[in-house]
Amino acid sequence: MEIDNNRAERSIKPFFIGRKIWLFAVSTSGANSSAIIYSLEETTKENGLNPFLYLQFLFEELPKPDMTAERDIHHLMPWSKVLPKGCYIQKKVSFRQKNGKAFSFLRNSVFTI
After folding, report:
1. What is the Cα–Cα distance from 97 to 93, expressed in whole angstroms?
2. Is residue 61 a contact partner of residue 90, using CB atoms and an 8 Å limit?
3. CA 61 to chain centre
4. Is the separation of the CB atoms in 88 and 49 below 8 Å?
5. Does 102 reside within a domain?
6. Quick check: is 1 in a domain?
7. For 16, how many CA atoms within 13 A lie in the half-sphere containing its CB?
8. What was the pLDDT predicted at 44?
9. Dihedral in degrees, nearest 10, Cα atoms 96, 102, 104, 110
10. Is residue 23 assigned to a domain?
11. How many degrees, rounded to 5, is the angle at CA 31 between CA 29 and CA 33?
C-alpha cells in the first residue's frame, strides 16, 4: 500500500491543465459530464484497459436487451475479470527482451576495437 497519493495526483493533473481549454463545459452539467468521462477514462487506464476499446465494447454491449438490471452490468465494469482480452492494453516487448541473446552477441563481439 502506498503511503502517499502521488499516483492519484498524477491522474488528475491533465484534467486541471485542460480545464481552461474545454469549451463544452460552459455549464455545471457540462463540467459534471466532463468529470464523469474523465474519471471513467482514468479508471480504465488504472485497470490496464485501452480506454477507446473499452468504450467501444461498452457501446456494443449496453444496448443489448438482456442488460435490464443493475446486477447485469457488473461484468462490464473496468475492474471486472471477465472483460474481453481485446480491451486490455497490449504490452510492448523491447528488442532486448525479445532477442536478448542476439543483442548480447552484438554488444560483445561486433563493436570491439
Report:
1. 6
2. no
3. 19
4. yes
5. yes
6. no
7. 6
8. 93
9. -130
10. yes
11. 70
Q: How far is it, in rounded angstroms, from Cα 92 to Cα 85?
A: 15
Given a contact cutoff of 8 angstroms between Cβ atoms, the answer to whether 111 and 104 are in contact is no
End-to-end Cα distance, the chain: 49
Which residue, among 74, 88, 13, 11, has the nearest Cα to 43 in the 3D structure? 11
Enclosing domain of residue 71: 6-110
Total structural domains within the chain? 1
Low-confidence ranges of the chain (pLDDT < 50): 102-113
The secondary element (H helix, E strand) that includes residue 60 is helix 51-61
Per-residue CA distances from 41 to 7, 8, 34, 79, 95 (Å): 15, 13, 11, 13, 30
Residues 57 and 40 sit within 8 Å (Cβ to Cβ): no
Exposure class string for 50-88: b at 16+ Cβ within 10 A, else e:
bbebbbebbeeeeeeeeeeeeeeeeeeebeeeebeeebe
The owner of cell 487506464 is 45
Tell me how far apart the alpha carbons of residues 100 and 36 are, in angstroms, rounded to a whole number: 44
